[in-house]
Amino acid sequence: MPAVADLPPQFQKRVACSIDAAVKYEIPANLMLAVAEQEGGKPGEWVRHPNGAVDVGPMQFSTGYLRDLARYGITAQDVAARGCYPYQLAAWRLRMHIKLDQGDLWTKAANYHSRTPQFNRVYRAELMLKAVKWADWLERHFTTIRRPAR
């Protein structure tokens, strides 16, 4: 994907994987890129929070979601792995929030982080700023086709 060549090497994989996952799961690419930037995890990373929750891997998947993934044979090691698979899992999860949760798009997307209103609000505001930045970046680097309204 030549458009990522202008990014620092440490971000190229994140961007390429995020765009690919967004296309696959039919979610806005700028939203997926914003979540990936906001989470900012690294492969193999495990972050323990004071409340006991643990976030795993490049997309900082909460271990609370691992129980849901286990029924599909997906493990914490899969979520923490290198490569694009953790981004695919995150895009799947974002799509589920967008389809099933209540609220506007931004609140639903911020549920990726937390459904607790005070934490959701902060994450939502940061996500919106990042999504605007990524929408501009995508516009500069990719030709997009806009479908006419029906």
TrEMBL record:
Tree of life domain: Bacteria
Q: Which CDD domains match?
A: LT_IagB-like
NCBIfam families reported for this sequence: PRK13888.1
| UniProt protein name | Conjugal transfer protein TrbN
